[in-house]
Amino acid sequence: MTYPAIRVDTWFQGPTGSGQGGWTASAFERSIGEPVSVAIRAPILLETDLEVRAAGDRWDLVASDNPEHPVLTATPWTPDVPDTDPVSIADATEASTRFPLFDNHPVPVCFSCGLEHDSMRVHAGELADGRWASPWTAPTWATRPDGTTDPGALWAAIDCCQAWFAGNAGGRRHGVTVQIAVEVLESIQPGETYALVAWSGDYLDGWDGRKRGACGSVFTTDGRCVARSRTFWVALPEG
Fold it and tell me: pTM for the full model?
């Protein structure tokens, strides 16, 4: 079977010089055509055609000149994200005032949570109950021909919301996404504002050595959950 290739434009950066994980993982899933959990194995190459290759019970995303070292790997996924209580747009907006890193942002060019004027500005902060939240308005530039939002924008936003939770809840610690899976329950509407929520879910509430899991949900203004996510993180070595 032949799968569509993936190319990440420079604007869709997460860390400087590398594609944003959620955006790329969403494109990978759509190329495969079924729900998957995506492992991020290496920095995501920009402005490079990446090939999707079936490899037994998984799929690899590779550069043609380095096929033995996948950038991403996907495996089949049956969605199993736990529920959480809705968060209002007002409460998510208030939480975002506690976003911790305006002066020392580790990924300032990230198109999802960075500080550039045209980023989606997913700037999550802590709620009173220990969860983290951010408002997010689905960008009109991501509108598809059917009038809905490209799910890549959603994957990027929910990834970044969980990033701020994982890296700051209980104390600041830099980490990187190593696994992401997203279940989209309803199409995201361009121009609509949603509440992004991140919490520990059914994972350990905190770091287990250098590992940490997080879950996420996306709520409409009337409290409907329209997407859910799992992510897994590895802390960068200290020092």
Answer: 0.95
